């Protein structure tokens, strides 16, 4: 192909290389220069133009691109019509894209004028989605180059359609794992599977026990499940842990445990008979993409996933910043860093309709003042109080207390908005926060301090929850590393699913009494607590008097 600046007298039959905009003429790149166009260019004062002219044996860009696209398209891939030297390749069916990496690299090395770009290998694709593009950069390709491309070209890009559609889900249970977490996990999983045309046909919840896991997997296989997903109440820690032991007890085998993808490290891949079994990592409870998706998609498409396949996922396997990965600015000093308290006091208290709940008196003291006084009696500083509904009443109830007030005008949109407002108000030097509820009047300041001190980013303890008799309560302490996850919450939801998604980061702190579990929603509950505390104090006085009488007798 000849290329360069050419006088107008010599450009007949050549192609314009650049677009040109003149008062009465718009010449587009690649336009064939015929006599009429040349005359208009001359009338506009143009004397020469950059042009390209094909030589004998050259293959025009569109024909070259179409030929290459046809050669590299494998099963379930179709090519668009060529345009300006480009052909886009699209998936003919939904599925997982497979590529021959070595062949694509070899083709791209033949000539810089010809390029082939694809989506990443094993990407999930929908029907009609572009999976690759062939681009011929100049206006033509020499015949010798086309011959070399023809020798190298072969089906290099295919789409493996989703084949497995019948999925079983087994969830193991331990105290503290709530029904809401399991329900959310099932919703997220169903949505994940729906994208691949699959659905949950068997669902069972069992104790976190290898025998019960084995029985559930056997039942799933008997129900015709083509793949089983096991969500453990506790993360898999070893090949000998409950879930892998359950797979083996069902007569299955463990193919691989662990993967170099983050999030997703704790994935387990096994098999019971012909049924693949995935032991899901905690991040699989979240809809965000993680290593679990990478393996699940391949299995749903009927592709084998070997140990080597998993171990080769490390390059590109760092999917996003996650809480378990230390931040650059963190140091050992953060282990004893500064704690703050956030008291959420913006709610409407709709179950106490004839009064403003948080300012309702408890032994003559506003309900919210009890909670905030506990925060003030702890070591946490600052104490941030988030107001919203009847904000002035809350401020009046807390008059004289050294706190930072933050108003949340969006309080009607749900609890998450108040949490975001409180977190945004914290000073940069705060590295952990204890999130408290304004309607919990019996929280012990010592518990607040124990929760805050239990946070240790260096040891991977990023969430501290109070626990008694297997129940988890409030308040909850959070390391700064998890603040972004909390800030991303929406609607009238708390942070339970953030806890569930980061189960490995949770430390349980023993809680005494009922303070971590008692919140006041109704007038009856408030009156019952007042009566209980009067009786409790009366018993203390009586016991003190009795002890005094015994001492006198002695």
TrEMBL record:
SUPFAM superfamilies: Molybdenum cofactor biosynthesis proteins (SSF53218), Nucleotide-diphospho-sugar transferases (SSF53448). InterPro entries: Bifunc_Mopterin-bd, MoaB/Mog-like_dom_sf, MoaB/Mog_dom, MobA-like_NTP_Trfase, Nucleotide-diphossugar_trans. CDD domains: GT_2_like_f (cd04182), MoeA_like (cd03522). Transmembrane segments: none annotated. Gene3D superfamilies: MoaB/Mog-like domain, Spore Coat Polysaccharide Biosynthesis Protein SpsA, Chain A. It is an enzyme of class 2 (transferase). Its EC number is 2.3.1.157. GO terms for molecular function: glucosamine-1-phosphate N-acetyltransferase activity; nucleotidyltransferase activity. Keywords: Acyltransferase, Magnesium, Transferase. The keyword Acyltransferase applies. Residues 168-301 form the MoaB/Mog domain. This is Bifunctional protein GlmU. It comes from Starkeya nomas. The lineage of its organism: Bacteria, Pseudomonadati, Pseudomonadota, Alphaproteobacteria, Hyphomicrobiales. The gene is glmU_2.
């Amino acid at each position: 192909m000849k290329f360069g600046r050419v006088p107008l007298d010599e450009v007949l039959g050549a192609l314009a290389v650049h677009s040109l905009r003149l008062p009465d003429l718009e010449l587009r790149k690649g336009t064939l220069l015929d006599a009429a166009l040349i005359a208009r260019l001359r009338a506009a004062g143009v004397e020469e133009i950059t042009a390209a002219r094909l030589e004998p044996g050259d293959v025009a860009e569109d024909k070259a691109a179409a030929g290459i696209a046809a050669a590299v398209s494998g099963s379930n891939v179709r090519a668009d019509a060529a345009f300006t030297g480009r052909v886009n390749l699209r998936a003919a069916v939904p599925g997982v894209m497979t590529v021959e990496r070595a062949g694509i690299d070899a083709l791209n090395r033949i000539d810089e004028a010809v390029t082939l770009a694809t989506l990443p290998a094993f990407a999930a694709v929908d029907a009609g989605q572009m999976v690759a593009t062939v681009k011929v950069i100049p206006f033509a390709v020499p015949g010798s180059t086309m011959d070399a491309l023809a020798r190298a070209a072969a089906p290099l890009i295919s789409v493996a359609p989703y084949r497995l559609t019948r999925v079983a889900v087994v969830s193991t249970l331990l105290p503290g794992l709530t029904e809401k977490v399991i329900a959310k996990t099932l919703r997220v999983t169903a949505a994940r599977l729906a994208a691949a045309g699959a659905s949950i046909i068997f669902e069972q919840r069992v104790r976190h026990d290898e025998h019960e896991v084995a029985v559930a997997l056997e039942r799933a296989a008997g129900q015709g499940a083509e793949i089983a997903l096991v969500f453990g109440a506790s993360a898999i820690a070893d090949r000998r842990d409950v879930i892998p032991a359950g797979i083996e007890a069902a007569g299955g085998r463990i193919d691989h445990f662990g993967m170099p993808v983050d999030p997703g490290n704790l994935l387990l891949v096994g098999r019971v008979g012909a049924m693949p079994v995935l032991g899901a990592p905690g991040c699989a409870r979240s809809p965000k993409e993680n290593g679990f998706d990478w393996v699940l998609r391949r299995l749903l498409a009927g592709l084998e996933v070997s140990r080597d396949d998993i171990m080769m996922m490390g390059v590109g396997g760092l999917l996003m910043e996650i809480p378990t990965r230390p931040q650059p600015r963190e140091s050992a000093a953060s282990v004893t860093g500064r704690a703050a308290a956030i008291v959420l006091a913006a709610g409407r208290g709709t179950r106490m309709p004839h009064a403003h709940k948080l300012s309702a008196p408890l032994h003559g003291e506003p309900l919210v003042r009890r909670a905030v006084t506990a925060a003030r009696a702890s070591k946490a500083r600052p104490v941030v109080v988030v107001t919203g509904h009847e904000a002035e009443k809350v401020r009046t109830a807390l008059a004289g207390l050294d706190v930072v007030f933050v108003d949340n005008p969006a309080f009607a949109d749900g609890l998450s908005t108040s949490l975001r407002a409180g977190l945004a108000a914290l000073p940069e030097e705060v590295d952990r926060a204890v999130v408290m509820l304004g309607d919990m009047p019996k929280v012990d300041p010592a518990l607040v301090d124990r929760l805050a001190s239990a946070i240790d980013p260096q040891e991977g303890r990023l969430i501290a929850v109070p626990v008694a008799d297997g129940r988890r309560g409030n308040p909850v302490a959070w390391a700064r590393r998890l603040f972004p996850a909390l800030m991303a919450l929406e609607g009238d939801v708390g942070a339970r699913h953030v806890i569930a998604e980061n189960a490995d980061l949770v430390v349980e702190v023993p809680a005494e009494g009922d303070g971590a579990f008692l919140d006041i929603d109704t007038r009856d509950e408030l009156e019952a607590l007042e009566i209980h505390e009067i009786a409790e104090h009366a018993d203390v006085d009586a016991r003190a008097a009795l002890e005094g009488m015994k001492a006198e007798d002695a």
